[in-house]
Amino acid sequence: MAKSIVAALQIGASPSGKAETLKNILQYRQAIQDAGASLVVMPEALLGGYPKGEIFGTYLGYRLPEGREAFARYYHNAIDVPGAETDALAELSRASGASLVIGVIERDGSTLYCSALFFTPEAGLTAKHRKLMPTGSERLIWGQGDGSTLPVVTTGAGRAATAICWENHMPLLRMAMYAQGVDIWCAPTVDERDIWQCSMRHIAHEGRCFVISACQVQPSPQALGLDVAGWDADRPLIRGGSMIIGPLGDILAGPLVNETGLVCAGIDTDTLTQARYDFDVVGHYARPDVFSLSVDTRARQTVKFIR
């Protein structure tokens, strides 16, 4: 039987910046080893930060100078891929024996991307996925990914893929990933709501796969010294809710709320065949004579130099 331990690491980006956040992540090496985890999923925008409540000085039709300064600070707190931070995470993967999926803010030229990076103990940085569609005002600060970063990575726990936060709500993206034979669906997020947990259970049940949802946890604006418009100053900005779900939608572990820590569960990927007996969304329960999906996996480049 293909049994293993998987985990979600619920942790938040440090207000002090990416160096402190990375330090906090690396401190979990022993806990990951002690848990015997083969795969650990970490939240969206963990390295680089999710600036909840920040408006970056933008109003319809104009932008304020202080907003440009805020973006510059955010840009400098992002990471290069590959870079020093990915080297440290590759070493964490090697030393702990666990594959990692982690949400980062990736710096590429003058554009930022909300990305998820894959690490394996054997190969280090293995693949990345760039969020295809930033949500709402996220589009002010992040570029869009393309079809060239839709990987499925073989880990010690099974074949893993990822969708970041609300792109989990994109039905066609889900179909594209299911068609690649996903065993474990990794969902880095900052969505703390109960309805998000419903979505995670739905994806597990729809894709007949295991789902690991890893959410950031952040204290209240008051504790962080922030003034967030329209938000209760005493209410946590992000309360977590990380969880692990089985292929019939059953909750295996979590949700963990308002604290940091590892959420762990044992899984057995051999049971996926049983789960798909009555529902295989890209197999016997599909209707290719009626519906079909084309996925463009080419990398999109603005400028091409042909020599």
From TrEMBL:
Residues 4-269 form the CN hydrolase domain. GO terms for molecular function: hydrolase activity. PROSITE patterns: CN_HYDROLASE. Keywords: Hydrolase. Pfam families: CN_hydrolase. Belongs to the carbon-nitrogen hydrolase superfamily. Nitrilase family. PANTHER family: CN HYDROLASE DOMAIN-CONTAINING PROTEIN, NITRILASE. This is Carbon-nitrogen hydrolase family protein. It comes from Affinibrenneria salicis.
